[in-house]
Predict the 3D structure of the following.
Amino acid sequence: MFTVAGWMTLEWEDERLIWNPDDKDDIESAFAPPDKIWKPELVIDNSLEELGVISLDNLNLRYDSNGVVEWEPPKLFKVHCQVDITYYPYDQQKCAIIIVGWGYLKTEVDLAFQDKAINLDDIEAHGEWIVTKTESISSELTETQADGTTRVFPQLEFWIYIKRRTAFYNLNVIMPVVVTTFLVAFTFIVPFESGEKLSYILTVFLSLAVLLTITADSLPPTSITVSVLGMYLGIVTVLAAVGILMTIMLWMVYNTEGDVNQSKSGSEGCVLHFLKFAACCICSSKRRLINRVLRRRGKPSTAQVAPTKGNQPVTDSFDEEADMTWKEVAIVLDRFVFVVFLAVTIFMNVGCLVGLMVGADQKKL
C-alpha cells in the first residue's frame, strides 16, 4: 500500500460558461458549487479505499469569463502497489496513482497532463523514504463487452519513485545481527575449564532468536519476492544451531577419559590425521605431539633394550613416550572450529552486505 496526501489540479473549458465582462460589471471570474457546473467523472483505478468518482461537495469550482474551469480537490491517496523487497532495506520502490475517465469514452472526453504533471514543490521530507524521480504516462483503458465490442477510456498514470532511508535500519537491524553472529564464533575460544561454554552459546542462540524475530517482523509481508536479508537471517539461525551441536560434541571429546594412543581402533587414527590437519591450519604447538603419536601408532609393538652411552640412555625424539589426552584433542579442535566459524561468519556478513548494496544500486526501476 502506498499513501500520499495532496491535491489534484483539474482544468477544462466549458463554452457554456463564457460571458462578456463588460456586460457583467467587469467580473472576470466567479465561483459555483460542484452540483451547478459540469465536471469530469474521474476514478482512481488502483485505489484501496472505496472505488468511486472523485468528488468534494463542499469545495466550489472557479470559472472565468473564457469558460475555463479550475478545481483543486484535496485528497488522501491510498493505492495498491507491487512491492519488491529483494534488497530490503536498501530497496527502491515505485508506485503509480492511476486516474481513469470512467464516465466518458476517449472520443468524448480526453485527458491530458498540464505542464508539470507532478508538482513536488510543497513536498515535505519523509522519515523513511526519499522521492528520487517522478514520471507521467498517458495511456488507455480498454474494456471488452460481452458482444465482442470494445470501449476505450482515457487514463493517466502518475508514477512516483522512492528510495528507502537506510540509516535507521543499519543501526537497528543490520548492526545487531552482524555483531550477534560473531558472538557465535567466539564460543569456541571460551575455555572448557570455565564450564560456561554450552550455557554461553545457548544464551547467544536465544538472543539471536529474539533479534531475528524482531527483524523478521520489520520485513514487509510478501511471498512474491524473497528478501536477501530474510535468507541471511535463515542462514544465521542454522549457523547458530550448528555451533550448538559442535559445542556439545567438543564437550564430549573433552570429557573422554584416557589417552589417544591407548586406542588401537581405526577411528582414532582418522581422528589423529584430521587433528594433524587442524593443528597445521591453526599453527598449533601440538603438531609435534600429534606426529609422535602417529609414528608410534604406525610402528609394531616390540620389546627393545634402550642403548646406552656411558651411564646415560640414548633417546630418540621420535620413539620417546608421547601421550596425548582427549582434552588436548578437544582444545585443538576447539581452536580449529573457531577459525572456521570466524571465516564463515566474515564471508557471510560481507557477502550479504555487498549483495544488498550492489544489487540495490544495479537495479534500475
